[in-house]
Structures are given as structure tokens and as C-alpha cells.
Specification:
Elements lengths: L22 H15 L4 H13 L3 H15 L7 H23 L11 H25 L14 H22 L11 H22 L11 H21 L5 H19 L20 H35 L5 E3 L2 E3 L2 H19 L7 H23 L5 H21 L6 H33 L6 H4 L5 H12 L8 H24 L6 H26 L6 H16 L3 H14 L5 H8 L7 H13 L20 H10 L4
Antiparallel strand pairs: 1-2
Helix pairs in contact: 1-4, 1-6, 2-5, 3-4, 3-5, 4-5, 4-6, 6-7, 6-8, 7-8, 7-9, 9-10, 9-11, 10-11, 10-12, 11-13, 12-14, 13-14, 14-16, 14-17, 17-18, 18-19, 19-20, 20-22, 21-22, 21-23
Length: 644
Amino acid sequence: MRAGGAEENPEGSRRRLPRLKIPAKIWIHRRLKNQHEGDESEQQLEEQLEQLEQLEQLEQVSRRLILREEELFSQDSPREEDEDQLQQDLEALSVQMWMAVHDTFPSSTCSPAAGHLQVLRSAVASIQLQEQQDRRWAARPQDRVPVWRPQRSLSTHNVLLQTMVVGRLRRAAEDESSGADQLSSGVKRQVCSAGKCLQDDLLTVVRTVRDSYPAQMDILNVYAGLYHQSFSARLTELASSGLDEDDCSYLLFWVNHYYPSEILKHEELDGQINSASLGPLLLQEDWIRLEEQYLSSREEKMKLWLNAALRKEEEDWLSGSTPELIDTYYFSPLAIDVIQVINTSLTEFSCAIKDQSKAQRLTVHLENFLCSYQKCLEDFVRGNHSNVLSVVKAQLVCEQQLRDYITGQTGSVSEEQRRRCVDALSALRDCGYRCFTGPLNTRMKACLGGLCTSQWADGSLPAVDSLLDLLNRELDHLRDLKPACRQALLCFLHQEVVFLYVKKMMKSRMRSREQQVAGAQRMVEDAGKMDGFFTEEVGTRGPGASWLCGLLCSLAELLRLQDPASVQLELVSLAQSFPDLSGAHVSALLSLKTGLSAADVHSIRRSVEENRFLDVSTNHSPPFFSRIKVKWLNNKINQLGLKR
């Protein structure tokens, strides 16, 4: 009887069994060694492939050898010479199978030839036949099993694939002619070359090689797992070698973006590779360390760059130089430069860091920059420099560019950060506006000095006409302000004019009903004049024109009405439109009416409070009355004997 080791022959002496060789491992070692040393040229490989194609199909050879094996071991005492010959033939078959598998990927960038794919398909079928034969022998008595069983062809096949993958990635990383020679460091070239080899090979598998394997072998995921493990090992080795800033960034780019998003999500691979089973490319501790190194470096660079840009801008202001004129308006490159560096940093960050919320570690420096920018401009304006107006005009352009950029950002900037950035920009913008509106305030107040007097009410004192004439002369100085910024400034100025108008009106009192009715008509006319003036100056109806004109018309209607119930309805409507209209403001407006009793006043005030909108988010009018301080209103209320 034949066993898996030595046994006694019938005559009682030990019969020598054929020495069990490991032809696949020996052949793999020699094949890879020869290829690494360049002993075999591509032409030689092609010649070997042609020889293989001329050979009998491996699947047929495998079937014939299995049949011989079955026949031989169905005998009671198989001849030793027959066993030795069969074992040699099986070893020869194995070598041919492993040659076919090893040559899966051609040395050039082209796909495997059709002839080779036919040989590979036959080799895979042969592997399956040998696996089936292993299973058949496993169910038989051990003393009847040939010494070469089990062959474990599938296991050897997978070991060969692993060896092939490791060797291909190693050679790709060491190949100086792989197309990555333009990269600036050895680490980058290694990562890029190995990654490109990985992608090209997986695409070769999905395009051609996969059809040579049965579906149950899931060869694409087998290769994907082996390439992932090998690529991961190389990246882990590089990560532990101590990377500089650029290499760290590049490695993270591959780990967090290019590999998962561009390779595994390639249109021909997406959905076909079980990415979840692959695991991370880097160990958690390496990943965290590299990301922290990257973020710390980028934070420091961004902070230094933004500070240097602001310092350079401030030096230009203080030097007395006038900003550059582009298309007839003043311009500063500061905002564009800042946006460019932020955009570049965030774009790189989005590819280098997996957790996108960590972008706030970078954007916080934009927030700090804007606060410093605001303070620098305020300090410069207080210095009363000769170039202050031209500088401010250029900075208003910067403010608008930065505001558009920040409000358009999604994801990178948190809502809280966005709010603080916009607040800093609003303060910077208001500082610039005050440079133009501040010197006009005293003169505008003088023009409105006769407001709500009898001369104003009968039309003999054209207060608003005088004010608009003043503005018409002064606004000529804004011709070199960028049109969009000029429009925003004029809208702000429109609000300032209406604010001064309403504030003056609320401090006045028209005693007779006739004077109130005439004054109401005058207010409507004034509202129309201001609206028309600013619409013409802006070139289009400004974003604040509708509600400003509507506010003045509502106040005029309140002044015109005499019936307490009608006054109450108008005030309730006004309070719903302007939630910042306080009880003190309501009392001041009621004090303009001479025909209301104390009971009427108390009833109207109570109704206003009861009918306010509780949800102020339903109203879109900007704050207005809150700018009118209540101290003098309280004094006025006390003087009139109105209880709050």
C-alpha cells in the first residue's frame, strides 16, 4: 500500500519514495530573480509565451494527468517508476501554470495579448481541476493518498500573486523612468510610481484578466487586497522615516484623496472593489501624527503669510502713496491675495485631511486677520493722513471682495466663524463709510433743522431739497469708487438721511390737526424726492429704497390719521414691520398727536405690545429704530406726563 511517507514493501525492506520537490516556489524565486536582474528580455518572454501557446492546453493536460493518477492508484501496487514519472509530469504542469499566471502583466504598458489570456484561462481551469482532485483525495484513506497530494494549487497561486504584486510595486517605486521624475523628492516619486502601477494593474485586471477567472474567485478583489496591503506597507515605511513638510502633504494627499477617490472610485473600478474590507492605508498613530504635522505647518504658514500681507498693506498706507487706479477706480490687491492663499490652503487641505471640520484650524486665521485688518484701518483713519480717502476707497473694494468670498464659503467655515468674519468686515466697512458720511452729518442736520415746522409744512422751507443739493455736490468725490461699492455706500447714505429725518421728526411736535395733515403730505413728498435722488445716483433701485420709502410713508400716515382706532392699527402694523420699535418709541410717536387722550395712548400702547410678532425671523426689515436712543425719549415722555 502507498502512503504519504516511507512504508514497508512486501519483502520487508523500506522502499525509497520519490523526493517531494517544491517546483512552484523554486520556479517563482528563480523567475523573479532573473527578471529583477534583467537576465530575460521581453523578446525572450514573448518567445516563451509563443512556445506555451503551441503546447497542449493546460486544462487538457491537467485532466489527462488526473486520469492517469486515478488509474495508477486504483492498482493494488503501483509501479514506483510510474509514480515518479507522474510526479514529474505534474511538476512540469505546475511550472507551466505558474508561468502563465506570472506573465499576467506584460512588462510594457499594453494589456496582455489575446494568446496569453487564452493560456491564463487554461491555467486557471487547471488550478481548479487540481483543487478538485485534492478534495477527492482528502475523502479517501490516508494510506492511499499520493505523496504529492494535496497539491494546494490555489494556495500556491495566491502566494505567487502576492509575490508578483510586491515585486511589481517595488520595481515601480525604484524605476526612474516611470514618469514621476518631474516630482521634487524621492518620496514623492516612490509614492506616485507605486500608486500609478497599482492603478494600471487593477485596470488591467478589470478590463482583461478578470475574464480568465471564474466569478467565484473574485479575482479583482483578490488583487485589490494584495495591492492594498503592499502599497500600505510601503507608505507605512515611508511615514515612519521622518518626512518633511512637502512629503508629508503629498503622502496624505494619496492616502486621504487620490487613492480612495481617484483610484478606488475610478469609473471602471467604482462599485466593484469592496473598499470597506481593505482597511486604512496607514496605521492610526501614523495617520494622526502626519495630519497633526501637516496642520501645524499649514497653520503657521497661513498666519505668517496673512500677517506679512497686512503689514505690507499698512506700510503702503503710511508711506502716503495713493492706491492704484484700475478702470478709473481705486484698487488694492490685498483681498485677492488673501483669497488666493486661503483658497489654495483649503483646496490642498480638502485633499490632505479626511476630517473636513478640521479646516477651522486654518480658517480661524482668516478670522484673526480680519479683526487685525479692521483695527489697522480704524487706526489709520484716526491718523488723518492725506491719502485717507483714496486708501479707504480701495479698502471698500477689498471689503466687498472678502465679504462675497466668505458668505459664499460652505463647509470650510463654520456658521459661528462666518458670523464673526462678517461682523469684522461690517465694522471695517462702517469705518470706511464714516469717512464719507461723517463730515456731512453736521451739514445734513443743518439742512433738516426746520423739519416739522409750520414753514416746512406749508412748503415754504424746502429742507429736503437743500439736503439733496448738498449731497449732489459732495457725491462727485465718489466717482473713483468702484461702482458696486459706490452703490452700497449710497444705500448706506440713504439710510443715514432717513435716520436723521425720522430722528428730527420724533423730537418735534405739530400741535394742530391741520399742521399734522399738511406735514404728512410733505413727508410723502420728501420720501419720494429722496427715493428718486438715490435711485438716480445708484443707477438702479437700491436694496434699501423700498423699505425706507415705505417707513416714511407709514410715519406720514400715522401723522395724518386722527381717529384713535386708525392710529392704533397703523402703529401695530409699524411694530410688526419693525420689531425694534420699542415702547418708548411708540410713546414718542404718539406724542406727535395732540388729539389723543391719556386713555387712548395707554390703550394703543397695550394693543401694540399684544399684537407684535413673537417670531421676529418672519420680518426682513433691518434694524432702524434701535439706533434712536431712548434717553431723550424718556425725558420727553416725562415732560409730557405720559406714563410708561
